[in-house]
Design goal:
Layout lengths: L1 H28 L2 H5 L1 H11 L1 H27 L4
Helix pairs in contact: 1-3
């Protein structure tokens, strides 16, 4: 049971990383077939570097969570 959760999380993280770059390829080319071609996505990530790319994704995720927390704290403030 626990292995299923771990494998699911690993697959989710891999697809999340590739999905962001696939969206960029789609915006760049306007072609869904090119965005779904995994070799084109890998070729777009390679010049950036995998370390920088994953680091940027982590940084963006952290910034999004901070904004989310601030937004939820603002929504708790009562309106007088």
């Amino acid at each position: 049971m626990m292995w299923t959760v771990i494998i699911g999380l690993v697959v989710f993280i891999i697809f999340m990383i590739l999905e962001v770059m696939a969206q960029m390829v789609l915006a760049d080319t306007g072609s869904i077939s090119k965005a779904l071609n995994i070799f084109i996505v890998f070729n777009k990530i390679s010049p950036i570097g995998w370390g920088k790319y994953v680091g940027y994704i982590i940084l963006i995720s952290i910034c999004a969570r901070i904004i989310e927390i601030i937004g939820s704290l603002i929504s708790v403030i009562p309106v007088v």
